[in-house]
Design a protein that fits this description.
With 215 residues, the chain is of the alpha/beta class. It is built from eight helices and five strands, in the order βαβαααβαβααβα. α6 packs across α7. The longest helix is centred in the C-terminal third of the chain and has 24 residues. The structure holds adenosine monophosphate.
């Protein structure tokens, strides 16, 4: 059985969730979204949901211990044995290291790290229209500004780590859903399947920089 382990990174509104759903359907692997898992816990009224609800409403990050434990459990589930599309995690350096260690422990390297590049203005505009359609409590202009600031402070360094390791495939996320998905499918079809861990400086992966697509 072929497995496919994909990571999607990018700001709110970059369409990575939409594309992750498409990749999930096309390749028969679960879409693992920390944001969706937290929102489900809140909707179900679980203990985790009660703990994280005020954090999501404020746009801050849920503590790493909780988030890492959630992902560790999720990736150990049977349906993730054939791969996964990870969306919304890792969001900071601590989580990136934890993911590295988890994947090393189960001998499952990432096949692709897809980076959805989008400017703040377009991201904010898109989230504004999503707020209209979905009514998410964290899609208000104030909370969106905070989430975007956290993205720049904490998640962008994670993007840079994958870039430095030569594992990043940069997508221009300002295009249509169909165009972005077509590029993703090409990238996945040519994926070498054995990307180096982010913390080895790309030394084990040879010259992966050719994978970097210009936006
Ligand atoms: P998202 O749907 O990915 O935008 O996530 C919604 C909210 O869930 C975020 O604003 C955070 O409060 C929380 N969240 C999602 N993923 C993470 C993560 N990896 N680490 C910490 N908090 C997270």
């Amino acid at each position: 059985m072929t497995t496919i382990n994909v990571l999607v990174l990018g700001p709110q509104g970059s369409g990575k969730g939409t594309q992750a759903t498409r990749i999930s359907a096309a390749h028969g692997v679960p879409h693992v979204s920390t944001g969706d898992m937290f929102r489900a816990a809140i909707a179900d009224g679980t203990e985790l949901g009660r703990q994280v609800e005020p954090i999501l409403v404020s746009g801050e990050l849920v503590p790493d211990e909780l988030t890492i434990a959630l992902i560790r459990d999720r990736l150990a589930k049977d349906d993730a044995a054939g791969g996964f599309v990870l969306d919304g995690f890792p969001r900071n350096a601590v989580q990136a290291e934890a993911l590295d260690e988890m994947l090393r422990a189960i001998g499952r390297p990432l096949d692709a790290v897809l980076f959805f590049q989008l400017d703040d203005e377009t991201a904010t505009r898109r989230v504004g229209s999503r707020a209209h359609e979905e009514g998410r409590s964290d899609d208000t202009p104030e909370v969106m500004a905070r989430r975007l600031a956290i993205y720049h402070e904490q998640t962008e360094p994670v993007v840079e780590r994958y870039r430095a390791a030569g594992t990043l495939h940069t997508l221009n996320a300002g295009r249509s859903v169909a165009d972005v998905f077509a590029e993703i499918e090409t990238a996945l079809a040519t994926s070498p399947g054995q990307l180096p861990a982010v913390d080895d400086g790309g030394l084990s992966g040879g010259s992966r920089s050719s994978r970097e697509a210009s936006p």
